[in-house]
Structures are given as C-alpha cells and as structure tokens.
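FAQ
Q: What does a multi-component entry look like?
A: The components come first, one per line:
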Amino acid sequence: MPDLTLFTFDWVPEPPRGFVRDLRVRWALEEAALPYRVASVPFNPRDTTHFAHQPFGQVPWLTDGDLSIFESGAILLHLGQRNPELMPTDPRGRNEAMEWLFAALNSVEMPALPWTMFKFTGSFDGSPAVKFVDDFLKLRLKHMETVLAEREWLAGSFSVADILMADVLRVVDRFEGLTDSPACRAYVARATGRPAFAKARADQMAHFAAADKTR
Amino acid sequence: MPDLTLFTFDWVPEPPRGFVRDLRVRWALEEAALPYRVASVPFNPRDTTHFAHQPFGQVPWLTDGDLSIFESGAILLHLGQRNPELMPTDPRGRNEAMEWLFAALNSVEMPALPWTMFKFTGSFDGSPAVKFVDDFLKLRLKHMETVLAEREWLAGSFSVADILMADVLRVVDRFEGLTDSPACRAYVARATGRPAFAKARADQMAHFAAADKTR
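Then the predicted structure of the entire assembly, as tokens:
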C-alpha cells in the first residue's frame, strides 16, 4: 500500500488552472490507479517549509513514505520505475521511455514554455528574440511530426514519456501552435482523451474552485 | 568491459567548440574512468542514420552494447545508475541526484539556453520577450545561489547532476550572467576545476581542431 501525498498550491488565479504541473503527477497516479492524498501549501507567501521541499518555490512535489521528490520529471520517473503501467520493463522499451521523457522536457519544452509565455503575456512581437524561440519551436515540432506520424505512443506502449510530451504539446496547442502539425495535434487529442487525464484535470479544477469559496 | 561509443559531429564552427553537448558525456565517462570510443557523423548534411539515433538531428548519442541512447540527460542517468562514481547508491542520495539532474535541465537550462542564445546572436535587446527570459533566469539563479551557498555538490557527493548543472551555469557565466551570483560562480569554478572536465574539454577541442586540417 503506497503512502503517496501530492503537494500543490492551495489556490492559483484562473488562467493557469488546468495547466498547473501537479496535473502531470495526478495523471500518472490515475493511470496506475495508485491511491494518493493531495495536500495544499500557500500560493502566497511561500514559506521555508515549501523551499525545503521545492528549492524554486514551485509545485508539485510528491512524498512517497519518507522520500520527498521535486521536479515533475523526477517524480514521473520515480513512479515509472515502480509501476509497469507507466513504463515498459524490458531494457529497450525502458530506454526509449527515458529518452523521450528527457526529450519532452529538455528538447521540446525548452522552446515551448517561453513561446507559450510570450503568447500568454502578449509579448509575441516581431523582435529577434521572439523569432529565435518561434523558429526553435517550429524546428522541434517538424521533427516531432515525423516521429508521431509513425507511432501511437513514444515508447511502444503508453508511458510517463507520453504524459510529459502530451502535456508540453497541449499548451502549445492551446495557443494555436500545432496548426501545421496534424500528427502532433492528433497525438495530444489521443493522450488527453484518456480517462486518467480527464480525471486528473477535473480534480485539479475542482481543487482550485473549492479554494475560491473559502477566500 | 563496457562497449561504449560516443557519437558527435565530425566538425562544428569555432564558437560552440568547448560547449557541444558531447562534453557532458565525455566528462561523465572520464569521471568514472570508463573506456570509450568516439565516432563522428556529418555536421552537414545530417543523414537518415543520424535521425534514426537522434530524432532531432542533434548530438550526442551513446551506444552501450546494442543499446543506443539519445538526450544528454538520459545518457548521464544511464551511466549514473551503473557507476557509483557518478551517482550515490543509497535511496536518499540517489533521489537527490535525480531531482537535481532534472532541475538542471528543466528548471535552470530552460531559461539559460534562450538567454545565452539572445546574448550570442546579439538579440539581447529591450523587448518584452528578452525581459521575460532575463527575469526568469534571474529568479532561478537567486534560488540556486541559496542552495549552492550551503553545499559543495548538489547530492552529497559529486554526481551527474553536478555535471549537468555546472555545464548549464558555465554557459551563463561565459556571457557574464553570474556576476551577482558568487556561490554559483564558485560552484562552476569548482566543477570545471576537476581533471575529468579538463580532459573532456581538451578532447572535444582536439576532435574539432583535427577536423579543420582535413577540410
């Protein structure tokens, strides 16, 4: 019986709801049908206990017994290595899941996150910096399009790599960044069409909505 | 006896020399004193074999027997999990190394790489996009400064997490981005002062310099 507690903010403003990174962990936990509790920490101010568990003052972190884990990539890898529903167990499949887990965060999210923030904050102008990030993302999407046109999931079967890649790409899709990448778009629809994603998203929305009532 | 081959470009222009990501892998291999070979693939054009091993057309990738691994994070984790010189073996130390390995790539390099490219390409202007990335990086450095003021290495002893974090931060340092972060700067000096880094860097420089002679 696992003793898993997911830590997230007690409240966030409307715009990031449905996109806070605790969703990645909820999604993985739902896919593996692992029982877990959700605990809240103040959005503002962030206290020293928070920084002791997450040195950047971000969320999520997960406790598994007396182990406390931050970084969504590290948490999903931790869960993946313990649950065959979340990662292939043969050496080749496991290696493929590891490669794509890092690719999602370090090759695709690296341009995708600033690109999204430029869109969100209205700073997506004609400046050279915006053009650099836009070209960087388009190049990555071109290669992902080739990969995703040929496979349903990144590592043979659905894995934590897909949770991360789909979560990275769906934010791009939200700002119409996948219009020229039909295979990427179909992949996002396929991944977010899974019942575990719907449950994770609904739970996150309900968590923050409940907080509105007590403010 | 491991059968390790590191794949990198046959040649790159002058500016990125000393910073091509095969250095991360060379550094880890030198730290663990693992024998390995270096193989070259064309910088231009990149062929289908290249994309079969590295779907973004980047370097490095590593073959370990019949396993081929791309993404520097995945390669370093692969090596770390097999070599106690590269990662603590106790659950707590290993967890800490994993957290910081992901933090280097997904929390710090995410703003550091675009920031560096804006500096390098001369597009570090007063635009809102540049300001967003600059503020993003400064916030991360503020938290890293607190962490690094209190410890020599990120996970108790030197690990692959330090290779990645130091490699990310030294590029920022190259463009004078650590002037207000003395603990980060001292950490970069400490890490890059290790003989394994010096050997890895010298080998990369020699590899590309040798290619100049045959062009």
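Q: Is there any commentary attached?
A: Sometimes. For this entry: Chain B touches chain A through 49 residues (CB under 8 Å).
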